[in-house]
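lol forgot to send this yesterday, sorry. struct tokens for the thing we talked abt
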């Protein structure tokens, strides 16, 4: 979770630290936000997806589960409904009074079988229906770790992330590189890109005053 640092003197501000992506379509799963401690320019490292793509794809059939028979043990079935849907007693009673009624949709077969067993042991009965298979999502490109800088384009316009060349060797299939060996895109200093301001450092990279303070994090 990134932390925002703000200078109380010149209002310089930078977000530092990690966040994980919600989607992996582009082949990256996380971003590490950095700042140059010398000139204050924001950089980032985008981290290529390490897991095999198959781990992320939903595999196997998907199911909808409906309650079709409450049986003799209403209280036990009501408990099973609440456990399955996460709803309250009133909601469970409404569902039990309206069989057949949907309990959950789009769960995998393992979960559907667990639900079926739960209701059977409570004396109820569910119907598990397979959903038609969805088209396979487009393949996720395999990427290497990438260093970027936040720059305004020459001639004006909105600032945007721009890819920086990597200095030194890259390692492994995901092209890991040493951050210490990289230089700041703007001031060319080496080893000044950090994702965390050491606690003993509190000088603002813009105005040089001892006024840089962590402002708490943001939820990602
Ligand atoms: Zn400052
Ligand atoms: Zn710099």
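and heres what i got for the seq, position by position
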């Amino acid at each position: 979770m990134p932390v925002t640092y703000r200078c109380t003197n010149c209002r310089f501000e930078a977000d530092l630290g990690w966040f994980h992506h919600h989607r992996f379509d582009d082949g990256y799963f996380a971003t590490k936000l950095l700042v140059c401690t010398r000139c204050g320019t924001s950089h980032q490292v985008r981290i290529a997806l390490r897991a095999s793509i198959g781990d992320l794809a939903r595999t196997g059939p998907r199911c909808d589960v409906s309650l079709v028979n409450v049986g003799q043990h209403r209280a036990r079935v009501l408990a099973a409904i609440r456990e399955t849907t996460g709803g309250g007693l009133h909601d469970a009673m409404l569902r039990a009074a309206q069989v057949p009624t949907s309990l959950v949709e789009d769960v995998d077969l393992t979960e559907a079988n667990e639900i079926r067993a739960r209701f059977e042991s409570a004396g109820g009965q569910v119907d598990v229906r397979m959903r038609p298979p969805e088209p396979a999502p487009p393949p996720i490109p395999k990427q290497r770790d990438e260093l970027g800088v936040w720059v305004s384009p020459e001639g004006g316009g909105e600032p945007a992330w721009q890819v920086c060349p990597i200095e030194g060797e890259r390692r492994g299939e995901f092209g890991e590189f040493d951050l210490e060996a990289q230089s700041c895109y703007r001031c060319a200093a080496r080893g000044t890109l950090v994702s965390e301001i050491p606690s003993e450092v509190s000088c603002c990279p813009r105005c040089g005053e001892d006024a840089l303070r962590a402002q708490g994090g943001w939820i990602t």
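The chain has four helices and eleven strands. anyway ping me if u want another try
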